[in-house]
Design a protein that fits this description.
The termini are far apart. By secondary structure, the protein is an alpha+beta fold. It has five domains: about 10-190, Topoisomerase II, domain 5 (Alpha-Beta Complex); about 195-310, 2-Layer Sandwich (Gyrase A, domain 2), CATH 3.30.1360; about 325-465, Orthogonal Bundle (Topoisomerase, domain 3); about 495-670, 6 Propeller (Neuraminidase); about 700-860, Neuraminidase (6 Propeller), CATH 2.120.10. The protein is built from 18 helices and 50 strands. Helix content is about 25%, strand content about 30%. The protein is elongated, with a radius of gyration of 40 Å. Strands 41, 42, 44, 47, 48 and 50 form a six-stranded mixed β-sheet that branches. The protein has a four-stranded mixed β-sheet with strand order 14-9-8-19.
């Protein structure tokens, strides 16, 4: 019976077994495989790899296969896992120096076999990651070796490298950040200042961090490829988004092309050392719209959701990157303090024994032990004799007691070390050198104690040392900017055609026997206005019924503030005809809206649409029975305000109308478009993002001045993306502007001055206005009415020249007049012309008073 009770008590329920085993397994995966610790920023396999490499480090490269074998003494999960982790560590170009083919993170190519590639610890890793005296140790999995619990890494490694891992019910994704920015932020932490941290990727690209939320769960970043317009039919991708490869990027572009979302002729991967994906466009395709479409429909733009989870005190915690850096900086400070304490202890020990050694030799204490017959007697004599010259730290000193007070008690170990002094050292003893060595030790000790007392300043100096020594190798590669939202309907390729059957009320791309309206895409929305005064917006399809007697149908874009609709309708209730202008910016799809008052018998008498708010003049002919004095008159829609679509409109006439005819189109009644250029991407926009370049309307053009000394006139297109890194100045083109230029003529080695107006009218073609010599370069590009320059000539003499007096306005091809032999150093450019007092917003300038630095010189 007792045996049955014991057996019964050991039975474990199946559900309890699963619960315990699952928790044990989950905890193991979280702590030992997937999630890094906050202090050293490493997963266990990474820590073991670095420890193994340090154990075998001799300054030379080791075969990776050998490193994997060494690491298997500590890591129980096989060579494949170790090899993969080692390659990923090496590809980050921070802790490991590589030799051989280690693969390519940009193309996705894998590394060569472990027996063919070699590695060693980098100088940076040796400096910041190892110190056996402050490392905590534990037994390896088989109990044969000791391995570090954590490496004493004195650097925010976790945030530099980034990490991604998936555990049981838990994951982490921490973005890599810039080496130099992390060091500067750590310094700010020590100075108790605020700071910001944003990711930086080896693959470069463009980055929008507006929703980063410091890497917390719920945040998001957008990363874009850097796409360059080579010419009207060619695009080139030079940098790709993080998490993609050239192969996956090309596949996504081809997939979008197959779906008809973009139109490309050919795509070529020319990637070698640097990324280069060349995209040839089909004839007539806008490169600017194609760039936007690539971002909208391919992996040229990716969204990444960070999730900063780390192990803190053997528990997973979700922290933001700023808190991670604060804790990392505090940990680094603690490690530096521990190293200083160890150095202080070692210096004290050296100073202690050096002082004892000097007294022992200088006072010939060794002579007193010549008659001693036993070892114990030798030790006793040395103890007695030495105490004639030294005293312990807590010993009371009598009057006229000039014995040396030691930093710690004189113990038996000190006596034993004194007996080990060799005769050769005693015979060569030099009191002056001994005093000098002791003083050096005291100076070193004082320095260490000063560092401990001013630990924050010492840590700042340490971080500055790392920045100066290694920072030049880690410039920021990813450009931080803000991305405008892309309206996919506006950038998708025209892969369909819109047809309309006006009488029967059908629209669609399958009505090829009916009237063709325009090319469109298969995801476009179509707006339809009918004779009964109703309109609706619906998705395009093969054939859609939208109501009989269609007046107008076209593609509709949400939020369109430019397209203006003109309408005259007969109100069935009052018998009067009303007129209105309106926009349609937001609707509910497939819902009918009434543009009249809704009275029975109401109908539309005239309807039109203007794409940029242009006004119209119509000719109205009244019925012959009308009693009006003027039965034929003109009306200008420009006299009406643009109101909402629900507006009743103004009364046009109370008499019956026989017909309304279009007479002519007037100018736009909308405000000119205020255009800015995103200084990161070169994208033109109306959201005041970046540098304001002017107000545009009608047939206004752009003028671009390039840093190389050429200009180009472009027809205005709000979708333009300009090569911002090559442009010195961009603004609305004003033909009457006089441009003042100072440049260095490379062939003659003269500094030249020229003044000219733009005489060419050809668009999309560059014109060089300085010489083609490779040494030629711009000094000044200015619109000032009367510019004066102050400069130093080749002999360092300061001079001033009024450019309007120096040279007349000539043609843009003119070489100009010689200002100086050799080059100059420009100091200042001023405008000597009288400044007008009136409001600049009314002046006919390229800025129109909206923030453009009108006439400001561009200095090179």
């Amino acid at each position: 019976m007792e045996e049955q009770k014991q057996n019964k008590s050991t039975v474990i329920a199946l559900d309890g077994m699963y619960k315990n085993y699952f928790l044990d397994y989950a905890s193991y995966v979280i702590l030992e495989r997937a999630i890094p610790t906050i202090d050293d920023g490493l997963k266990p396999v990474q820590r073991r790899i670095l420890h193994s490499m340090n154990e075998i480090n001799d300054g030379r490269f080791h075969k990776v296969a050998n490193i994997i074998g060494q690491t298997m003494q500590f890591h129980p999960h096989g060579d494949a896992a170790i090899g993969d982790a080692l390659v990923k560590l090496g590809q980050r170009d921070l802790l490991i120096d590589k030799q051989g083919n280690w693969g390519n993170i940009e193309t996705g190519d894998s590394a060569s076999a472990a027996r063919y590639i070699e590695a060693r610890l980098s100088k940076f890793a040796l400096e910041v990651a190892f110190n056996k005296d402050i490392t905590e140790w534990q037994l390896s999995y088989d109990g044969r070796k000791k391995e570090p619990i954590q490496l004493p890494i004195k650097f925010p490694l976790l945030l530099t490298q980034g990490v991604e891992g998936i555990a049981v019910g838990l994951s982490t994704k921490i973005m890599p950040h810039n080496f130099c920015e992390l060091i500067k932020a750590s310094i700010k932490v020590l100075q108790e200042k605020d700071f910001e941290l944003y990711p930086d990727f080896q693959t470069g690209g463009l980055l929008d961090v507006s929703d980063y939320q410091s890497g917390l769960r719920g945040g998001k970043i957008k990363v874009r490829a850097k796409i360059e317009k080579v010419d009207k039919t060619t695009l080139a991708i030079r940098e790709i988004p993080f998490t993609t490869t050239t192969g996956s990027l090309i596949d996504s572009i081809l997939k979008a092309n197959d779906k008809g979302l973009i139109n490309i002729k050919k795509i070529t991967d020319n990637t070698a050392k640097d990324v280069e994906i060349v995209i040839d466009l089909t004839s007539g395709t806008s490169p600017e719209l194609t760039i936007e479409a690539l971002y909208a429909f391919s992996n040229c733009e990716v969204s990444i959701s960070p999730n900063a989870c780390v192990i803190v005190d053997n528990k997973p915690l979700f922290l933001d990157v700023k808190e991670i850096l604060r804790r990392s900086t505090a940990h680094t400070k603690a490690l530096i303090r521990a190293e200083l304490k160890i150095e202080e202890r070692d210096l004290l020990d050296k100073l202690h024994f050096s002082s004892l050694e000097k007294i022992f030799i200088e006072n010939r204490v060794y002579h007193e032990i010549e008659e001693a017959e036993t070892w114990e007697e030798v030790l006793r004599i040395i103890d007695v004799e030495m105490r004639r010259y030294i005293m312990d730290p807590d010993e009371e000193a009598g009057p006229n007691d000039d014995r040396l007070r030691l930093a710690r008690p004189f113990i038996e170990d000190d006596i034993l070390r004194l007996t080990e002094i060799r005769i050769k050292k005693i015979s060569k003893f030099n009191k002056f050198k001994a005093d000098e060595a002791i003083q050096n030790l005291k100076d070193e000790l004082a320095k260490v104690r000063h560092h401990l007392k001013h630990l924050v300043e010492y840590c700042i100096d340490y971080f500055n040392h790392l920045l100066q020594k290694y920072g030049k190798d880690y410039p920021r590669k990813t450009q931080i900017t803000t991305f405008a939202d892309i309206e996919v309907q506006q950038v998708v390729a025209n892969n369909s055609k819109l047809y309309v059957n006006y009488k029967e009320g059908f629209i669609g791309y399958g009505l090829k026997k009916d009237e063709f309206i325009r090319d469109c895409s298969d995801i476009d929305d179509i707006i339809v206005f009918r004779e009964d005064g109703k309109f609706m917006v619906t998705k395009i399809d093969e054939k859609v019924f939208v109501g009989k007697n269609i007046l107008y149908a076209d593609v509709w874009y949400k939020g369109d503030e430019r397209t203006t609709y003109h309408m005259v309708y007969y109100d069935g209730e009052s018998g009067r005809s009303r007129i209105k202008r309106f926009h349609v910016k937001a609707i509910t799809r497939d819902r009918e809206y009434d543009l009249t008052k809704g009275s029975k018998g109401s109908k539309v008498l005239y309807f039109s649409a203007q794409p940029n708010g242009e006004s119209e003049i119509i000719k109205v002919t009244l019925s012959s029975s009308a009693r009006a004095r003027n039965k034929v008159f003109d009306f200008d829609f420009g006299e009406l305000d643009i109101k909402g679509r629900n507006s009743m409109g103004n009364i046009l006439t109370k008499y019956g109308i026989r017909k309304i005819e279009f007479k002519e189109t007037g100018g736009s009644t909308l405000d000119a478009l205020k255009i800015s250029m995103d200084t990161a991407t070169g994208q033109l926009n109306t959201e005041d993002r970046g540098q304001f370049i002017g107000k545009f309307e009608g047939d206004n053009q752009l003028i671009l001045f390039y840093k190389e000394g050429s200009y180009e006139i472009l027809d205005f297109d709000p979708n333009l993306r300009l090569p911002v890194d090559k442009i010195q100045l961009v603004k609305r083109f004003e033909p009457d502007t006089i441009w003042n230029v100072v440049y260095y003529e490379g062939e003659k080695k003269w500094t030249m001055v020229k003044r000219f107006q733009i005489e060419t009218t050809t668009t999309s073609q560059r014109f060089k206005f300085i010489s083609d010599h490779r040494s030629s370069k711009l000094f000044v590009l200015s619109e000032f009415n009367q510019p004066e320059i102050r400069y130093l000539d080749s002999s360092k003499t300061e001079k001033t020249t009024d450019l309007t007096d120096f040279i007349d306005v000539k043609g843009w091809r003119a070489q100009g007049n010689k200002l100086e032999e050799g080059s100059i150093k420009l100091l200042e450019v001023n405008d000597l012309s009288p400044q007008e007092e009136d409001d600049s917003s009314t002046s006919d300038s390229s800025s129109d008073g909206d923030g453009q630095d009108n006439g400001q010189p561009k200095l090179f």
